[in-house]
């Protein structure tokens, strides 16, 4: 980490609840007040406040030079963020939907992710790439993906996926202070938008002061002894719902929220698997060659003898379809997660 | 008006760059003859030499300071030399040595020197957006630094180039785009792939000035670049510049140029910007002895850099895991492939050219 991270347990107890978007914005505003080198650029981030409310209100406080609308030219402005970061600034650049990475991937994976390594460490790229991910609202194949695995697969980027307002704020502080490129992937359904209602889980108490959540520390969102469920983003909440449904049947699931994919907290997964012996991985990305396979491989490498059974639920290698019954079919539901836990338990 | 001292400086940079490419050509072919094996010899991999491009690097970079940013493409040596990149460390990098600019992790297409704000991208036109970003940083910080993105004529059909021109123009950023027109996009002659003969016409769509220097006359490049860079430094926005250069060697070493008419090759070699600049020096009263002296000094510097580089140790295989991140995650060694590089190598700092 660029700066000393505080133990999250030291953060002040508070009853103040925020949506995930308000928590993110609070962290961005705090960092911008502290450091003149931080600025935010993206499409519709100033007057509009971000299509998914990632920058609501920031323009009023910081003005158009620091909350900067840019042309719909992802190659140019993501690459410009790389250049500004290499010059020592701390840009935050927003890729409106992660699905749009295709028009700008060279800047992301050939420059942003590699210039530190290819310069032998003489250059740093301290930027944050914020991007909206996920489906569940019938936006079809070009606007509903998470692409977690795509970004985590390519070396040189730290990859962050918050699931609650508390985590979103602490991870954003860490992301902006980090000296490396951080891809901060926020799930649209968790942001607390009036026009895309969130489940109840992501709105949490959030301390008013700044705090960091270190990268590479998964969070056990529910402790249990029977089955380990490893997941991230929206599906943390679906897994928690599934786990509480199963309580009455005497099934005690443990739900691990990865919070960061790079670095990945393998130890927390292994500790849990050693305890339960049963592993379910739930992911909203495509199934093959992705997060589910990686988590299962690490569990197998580290705790094969303790592992009696594994399962995975993910998008079954089809593009995300539009119509409700079709999208609902392929995006792992609470019921499907509950059924998978039950099968593992039997 | 160019001063005689500036002529001397440009001449020295140009003869340095030319001799550098000639010497690298020799070194590159070691172990690759008679059967060409791209991975054999002291310099493995692709090598894109810039002989014939020297007037561009020298004529532009003479206007730049260390705090100005330059991004260069896959054919970067002459630009790096003119920008003042450490020649010894750069050469060690090209030879894949531990004390190279990037500790052997970049190679000749990926030269990075933070001391003079020099970076590369080996992907066509993709150095343009980071140059725009450096210009954006200069503007936000209210400095008078500028950025220059060099690219080839084959790059002006890339989306990243167009996006960068628009962003630079709409935000009035202090950046200059320099197209090095060597008439060839790898094996494609310009007229078959590019709809304009004068690449600076691309500026017309972006309300920025475009200017073409129709020869590799370093003084003409100096003058056009001087106008463009002053314009950027004064807060008057970006400029698109195209300068005619000549590709005296293949696209990359090993390119037999079977596609290229013999007349075009001999034409490129006949026009020599370096000889032209020597004439300019003589016209300004510089004696032949001094011109010879400059050339010899340049050759000596190149020979020294190459000799030094070849004596440098190769990186230890374990170093492959270092420098993925500036702040490596604490637990990374147990699962990811990367690790903390520990203390910075002092050898690189001490051994480089001062």
UniProtKB/TrEMBL annotation, chain A:
Keyword Oxidoreductase listed: yes
Required cofactor names: thiamine diphosphate
InterPro entries referenced in this protein's UniProt entry, alphabetically: THDP-binding, Transketo_C/PFOR_II, Transketolase-like_Pyr-bd, Transketolase_C
Entries under CDD domains matching the protein: TPP_PYR_E1-PDHc-beta_like (cd07036)
UniProt domain Transketolase-like pyrimidine-binding: residue ranges: 18-193
A Pfam family that the UniProt record links to this protein: Transketolase_C
Any GO molecular function: oxidoreductase activity
GO terms of biological process kind: organic acid metabolic process; sulfur compound biosynthetic process
Keywords: Oxidoreductase, Thiamine pyrophosphate
PANTHER family in the cross-refs: PYRUVATE DEHYDROGENASE E1 COMPONENT BETA SUBUNIT (PTHR43257), PYRUVATE DEHYDROGENASE E1 COMPONENT SUBUNIT BETA (PTHR43257:SF2)
Name of this chain's protein: Alpha-ketoacid dehydrogenase subunit beta
């Amino acid at each position: 980490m660029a700066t000393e991270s505080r133990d999250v347990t030291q953060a002040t107890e508070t009853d103040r609840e925020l949506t995930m978007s308000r928590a993110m914005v609070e962290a961005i505003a705090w960092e911008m007040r502290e450091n003149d080198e931080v600025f935010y650029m993206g499409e519709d981030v100033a007057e509009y406040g971000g299509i998914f409310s990632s920058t609501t209100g920031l323009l009023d406080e910081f003005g158009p030079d620091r909350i900067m609308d840019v042309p719909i030219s992802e190659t140019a402005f993501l690459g410009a963020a790389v250049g500004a970061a290499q010059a020592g600034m701390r840009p935050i650049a927003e890729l409106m939907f992660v699905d749009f990475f295709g028009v700008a991937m060279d800047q992301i994976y050939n420059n942003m992710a590699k210039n530190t390594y290819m310069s032998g460490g003489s250059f740093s790229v301290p930027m944050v790439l914020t991007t909206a991910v996920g489906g569940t609202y019938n936006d079809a194949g070009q606007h509903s993906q998470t692409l977690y695995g795509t970004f985590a697969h390519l070396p040189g980027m730290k990859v962050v996926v918050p699931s609650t307002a508390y985590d979103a704020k602490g991870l954003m502080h860490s992301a902006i202070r980090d000296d490396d490129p951080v891809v901060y992937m926020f799930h649209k359904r968790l942001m607390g938008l009036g026009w895309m209602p969130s489940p109840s889980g992501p709105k949490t108490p959030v301390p008013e002061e700044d705090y960091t959540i270190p990268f590479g520390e998964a969070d056990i969102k529910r402790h249990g002894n029977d089955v380990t469920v490893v997941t991230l983003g929206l599906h943390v909440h679906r897994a928690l719902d599934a786990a509480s449904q199963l309580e009455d049947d005497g099934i005690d699931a443990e739900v691990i929220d990865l919070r960061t994919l790079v670095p990945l907290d393998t130890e927390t997964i292994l500790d849990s698997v050693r305890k339960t012996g049963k592993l379910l991985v739930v992911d909203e990305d495509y199934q093959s060659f992705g997060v589910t396979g990686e988590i299962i491989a690490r569990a197998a490498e580290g705790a094969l003898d303790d592992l009696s059974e594994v399962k995975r639920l993910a998008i079954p290698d089809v593009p995300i379809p539009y119509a409700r019954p079709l999208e609902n079919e392929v995006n792992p539901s609470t019921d499907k997660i509950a059924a998978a836990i039950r099968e593992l338990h039997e | 008006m160019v001063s005689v001292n500036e002529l001397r400086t440009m001449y020295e940079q140009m003869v340095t760059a030319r001799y550098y490419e000639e010497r690298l050509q020799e070194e590159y072919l070691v172990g690759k003859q008679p059967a060409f094996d791209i991975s054999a010899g002291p310099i493995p991999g692709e090598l894109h030499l810039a002989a014939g491009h020297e007037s561009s690097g020298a004529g532009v970079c003479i206007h730049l300071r260390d705090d100005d940013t330059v991004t260069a493409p896959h054919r970067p040596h002459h630009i790096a030399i003119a920008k003042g990149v450490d020649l010894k460390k750069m050469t060690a990098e090209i030879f894949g040595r531990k004390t190279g600019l990037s500790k052997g992790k970049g190679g000749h297409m990926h030269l990075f020197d933070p001391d003079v704000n020099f970076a590369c991208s080996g992907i066509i036109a993709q150095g343009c957006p980071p140059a725009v970003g450096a210009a954006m940083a200069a503007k936000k910080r209210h400095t008078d630094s500028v950025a220059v993105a060099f690219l080839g004529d084959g790059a002006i059909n890339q989306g990243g180039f167009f996006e960068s021109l628009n962003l630079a123009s709409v935000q009035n950023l202090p950046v200059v785009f320099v197209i090095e027109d060597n008439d060839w996009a790898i094996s494609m002659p310009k007229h078959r792939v590019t709809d304009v003969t004068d690449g600076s016409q691309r500026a017309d769509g972006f309300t920025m000035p475009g200017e073409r220097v129709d020869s590799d006359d370093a003084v003409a490049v100096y003058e056009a670049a001087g106008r463009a860079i002053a314009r950027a430094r004064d807060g008057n926005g970006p400029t698109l510049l195209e300068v005619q250069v000549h590709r005296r060697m293949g696209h990359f070493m090993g390119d037999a140029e079977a596609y290229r008419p013999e007349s075009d090759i001999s034409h490129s070699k006949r026009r020599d910007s370096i000889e032209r600049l020597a004439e300019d020096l003589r016209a300004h009263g510089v004696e032949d002895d001094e011109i010879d002296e400059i050339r010899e000094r340049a050759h000596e510097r190149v020979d020294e850099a190459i000799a030094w580089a070849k004596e440098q140790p190769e990186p230890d295989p374990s170093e492959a895991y270092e420098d993925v991140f500036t702040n490596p995650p604490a637990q990374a060694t147990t699962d990811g492939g990367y690790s903390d590089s520990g203390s910075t190598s002092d050898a690189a700092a001490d051994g480089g050219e001062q």
